[in-house]
Input
Amino acid sequence: MSERKPLIMDQITNSILCMITAIPVIWLLNKYTILSTEYLVCYYCLFLFTGVLLAVFDHLRWLYRISILIPVAVLLAFRDIPLFLNCLAGLALFIGFMLLYRWKHRRHLIVVITVLLLVLCLISGDMSRVTAAAIAGLIILCLSLYAKSNIRYVLTVMVLIECIALCINVDAAKRVMAELAGTVGQIVSTMEDHFNDVKYYLGQYDNASYTGYDEPGGMFQTLKETSREELYIKIEGKITNIYLKGASYYSINKDGVEGRIEETLADNSWFAWYLNDLYHAGITKEEAESFSKIQKANVEYEYIKTTDIMHSTGLLLIDQDQTGNVLGKGDIYSFRYLTLDYANPYLTEVVRQSAQSDRPVWESYDTIREYADALYDIPVDSFMDESAYNEAYMTAMEELSDERYLDDSFVTDRIRELSMDITKDCTNDYDRARMIEAYLRQYPYDTNVDYRGTDHYVETFLFDEERGYCTHYASAMVVMLRSIGIPAKYTQGFKHDTANGNVVYSNEAHAWPEAYIRGYGWIAFEPTGAYASAAETGWGLLPKDEMESEITTDRTNPMYEETSDIPDIPTQQEDTIGDASSEAAALRKNILELIWQIGRYLVGLIGIVLLFYLIYRIYESIRYQRMSAADKVRTDITHIRRKLTRRLPSGTKVESVFDLLPYVQLNDYDLNEIFTNYYRIRFRGDEPEPEYVAMIHRLATKRVR
Output
């Protein structure tokens, strides 16, 4: 082992230097390609670890062969092209940098590479903390290359310390200290987050990079649509399409979207207005069933961490108000909501009538409570008492006059003229909003637009580029609605259809506008042409007296399943946490699941590599058996020379096999005679004896001690 220490230390040092050099390159690749930072780092580190491991076990000569097998193993094991491409990119970087650091004239070239990477990263802008740390480390590395060999190790350690120091910010340090001073449960929670990150990095997801739900702002440059598991949602009901609302914003300006609106989830004032509108329109139970249905949704957070509570538009009741909490992996809650079909003519007529009336009559609480029970078989007082009902009228009036939703500071004359021209034949706000929605849906959907450098991205979207993605459509419709006096806000979240599964992926992150229709309330619109409109997702249902024979309101029809009184939804503590023992059991389950996933991944990868190794050994054995005696001798002598060379002192030059004799002696074999016979066979053409061939093969295949 002592003889291999210089080799092992050299391999570890090279691995550290390769890692630091690769970080800026990986960051640039992620910025300008579909390659993933997480996967590239994961596979790149795997190659580096393989090199160190082979050096420890004295099999470094297998490094490049095994490294080439790993991408093939990944492709065969997972059959995932993004994973394979990221693994292949990691291999290319690994081989390139490893050869670079083993080249004797590497110093000047590394300086050139460092300067080039520094310039490229500065031009690209928005460098991450880790990338900046790696660039600083490269500068120290360049100095170390011109130092003596014993100084190089010291400078390498300095690079590591410098990287760690620059990667840690004050807030993170404070959080770590708070966790260390907190309870064991907090520490376990932090560890679990790290385990979840490891699980993600090890390839349990099929995305190549990550863009999904986040704070608004990434609306000016090219969008990378990816597929990462964000949420799990299960809808108990027939209607599977759902808008999951995360947050709304009121300010649209040259910098994008700002001004988060703090909404109260327990506020059901909209439902009071909705029931009043249906009551005044004379909607019957059968008609209401054709365009509305109360459903329940169960949500579990996966790889998303946010303070936003994802919920449907038309929220009625949520099992626990978690406002202000950071929700992440494992957080679970349920909510009840009213889903509506705005393509239904009965509901459309209700909205139009409400939009045309200035101050509708506000019915008494008892009247609306009885009416709700008749329509939906639900007790209104289970989620809205009489005082909240009476306040709903004033709440709606306040929202209607809220200046935040009418802010037209970003409205230009061209936008106002366009909006007025589109809606000139409309008689109410609802039809005006629908006309603007239909107009915007004609614009081509394109995620490759780049609006950086524009002073007014909405004008550029509407009149110049005339293409974009959801954030551009949503922003444009909000500005256009406000230009004609309709209150509007920008909303973001997810649009998902559980008919396609219960997993909500990052590429389902979406943005849409909401308009406040006088006398009715907030309505979500879909101006993005790539997504189905209300008309395209309509249920196509009619009231019982108008239905054809195949459509019936019989209670056996799942569409019309009985909606009983809303039960008390168990709290999160009752459902998922319970007492300390159940919490510990859940933690053990998560850890075991993580171990299982990691183990399955590694076993699969190792199995594929071993299979290739076995195939290679079989091939070599067959090829050896078919060789001539002279070729067998030459092959075995080559193996013997490699094994004996590894026992020589570092720096010893070997030009021929006879140079090994002063340093290596084997008790059971006369190396001088073996090598003399080999040279006679190779250069004089003597025919090797079978006994000699067998002896050479035994020496080549046995472990030399």
